């Protein structure tokens, strides 16, 4: 049995990444966790290769007690990079490709620009501490300039907007990964994952739902998954297209 197959057979039926102060249930898993499946891409920002290579962005979240205990997002100025995440009681991370849509990248870039991050030494940590919610680190590098800021709660609206966008990107990437795994190895988990996606849509908790349209269309015609999941996928397509 391949390492990848071992991973997929051990994944849980549904996943919703942490939101606010909620810690989701834990479940043991095993096997290697490296995946090269491309994201469903709605678009990308057209910048030159030189510009893309000049700036690097990063976001990190960690809370050892959360089901998704560690997330790292790294990307360039084009919004291309990786999402790395670890589940509770696991030592080997899952690595997935990241392709932010044009709209999501514009929101993220706007927050970085508003922070004037590399030119600033602002402490974004609020006076109140909420370590139980997890620690966040945002980082930016341009040439030899590099800065990382850490906080567990912030009253800075731009920093808050930035981490919220990264949280949405992580939620979406992990959801795509779990749906793809379910289609290949655990099709009976598909209905629950459709419910998870709908919940995230209602809460505006996805980076760009339009990036999911191709995946949902494929799912709706996949006879390996239950009919209830295929019909749910069609309903979600209509909601996203509105």
Topology of helices and strands:
Layout: H1 3-9, H2 49-54, E1 55-62, E2 68-76, E3 80-87, E4 94-99, H3 102-115, E5 135-142, E6 145-151, H4 157-185, H5 190-202, H6 213-220, H7 227-241
Antiparallel strand pairs: 1-2, 1-5, 2-3, 3-4, 5-6
Characterization of the model:
There is one protein chain. The protein is α+β, with helices and mostly antiparallel strands. The protein has one domain. Helix content is 38%, strand content 19%. The chain has 7 helices and 6 strands; from the N terminus they run ααββββαββαααα. The protein has helices at residues 3-9, 49-54, 102-115, 157-185, 190-202, 213-220, 227-241, and strands at residues 55-62, 68-76, 80-87, 94-99, 135-142, 145-151. The protein has a 6-stranded antiparallel β-sheet with strand order 4-3-2-1-5-6. Helix 3 runs antiparallel to helix 4, helix 4 (157-185) runs antiparallel to helix 5 and helix 5 packs parallel to helix 7.
Can you tell me the number of structural domains? 1
Mean pLDDT: 84
What are the secondary-structure elements, in order, as H or E? HHEEEEHEEHHHH
The profile of the biggest β sheet is:
6 strands, antiparallel
Low-confidence runs:
1-49
Cα-based radius of gyration, to the nearest Å: 18 Å
Q: Major sheet: order of its strands? A: 4-3-2-1-5-6
Q: Count of DSSP helices? A: 7
First and last CA, distance: 43 Å
Helix content: 25-40%
What is the global morphology? Answer: globular
Number of strands: 6
Strand content: 15-25%
Structural class: alpha+beta
